[in-house]
């Protein structure tokens, strides 16, 4: 009898406890763009306590034609590789229950395009804009972009790492 009373008291306490409040929203600190609208990248992001974090390792582009993966032409230019890499990231996020809108931080590593003799920063930004600060995803990210001498293979021009956060399910 005493055990039943203790169990009932514990249950009553648990039921009377206030529901956990949802964590505060992610604070995306915008930077002004040249037209007065929010800029392409954020100044920073504040993630309140209670969010789940997914750190995604660096990802590279997939070949345009999976049967061909030997030359740079098989992977495309910087814009093509950026789009391919973000598409891959989007799929990896979704497989873990995240969305591209959950990305808060990106580190971009760009190698020089031999056809240009330098990195194609405009091509990278053009590919980036297809997924961030777009009609489908108005969110953008805190981002660092690095020019590197080489990536793991000379066919790659872009490697991207991202961090995504989401509020835990209730």
Automatic annotation (TrEMBL):
<dbReference type="Pfam" id="PF01042">
    <property type="entry name" value="Ribonuc_L-PSP"/>
</dbReference>
<dbReference type="InterPro" id="IPR035959">
    <property type="entry name" value="RutC-like_sf"/>
</dbReference>
<dbReference type="GO" id="GO:0019239">
    <property type="term" value="F:deaminase activity"/>
</dbReference>
<feature type="signal peptide">
    <location>
        <begin position="1"/>
        <end position="21"/>
    </location>
</feature>
<keyword id="KW-0732">Signal</keyword>
<dbReference type="GO" id="GO:0004519">
    <property type="term" value="F:endonuclease activity"/>
</dbReference>
<keyword id="KW-0255">Endonuclease</keyword>
<dbReference type="GO" id="GO:0005829">
    <property type="term" value="C:cytosol"/>
</dbReference>
<protein>
    <submittedName>
        <fullName>Endonuclease</fullName>
    </submittedName>
</protein>
<keyword id="KW-0540">Nuclease</keyword>
<keyword id="KW-0378">Hydrolase</keyword>
<dbReference type="InterPro" id="IPR006175">
    <property type="entry name" value="YjgF/YER057c/UK114"/>
</dbReference>
């Amino acid at each position: 009898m005493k055990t039943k009373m203790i169990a009932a008291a514990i249950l009553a306490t648990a039921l009377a406890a206030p529901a956990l409040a949802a964590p505060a929203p992610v604070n995306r600190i915008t930077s002004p763009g040249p037209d007065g609208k929010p800029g392409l990248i954020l100044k920073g992001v504040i993630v309140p306590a209670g969010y789940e974090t997914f750190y995604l390792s660096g990802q590279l582009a997939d070949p345009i034609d999976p049967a061909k993966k030997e030359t740079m032409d098989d992977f495309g230019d910087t814009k093509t590789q950026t789009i391919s890499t973000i598409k891959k990231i989007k799929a990896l996020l979704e497989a873990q229950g995240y969305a591209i809108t959950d990305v808060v931080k990106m580190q971009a590593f760009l190698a020089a395009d031999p056809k240009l003799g330098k990195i194609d920063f405009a091509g990278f930004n053009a590919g980036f804009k297809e997924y961030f600060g777009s009609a489908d995803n108005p969110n953008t990210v805190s981002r660092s972009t690095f020019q590197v001498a080489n990536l793991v293979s000379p066919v790659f021009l872009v490697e991207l790492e991202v961090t995504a956060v989401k509020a835990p399910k209730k």
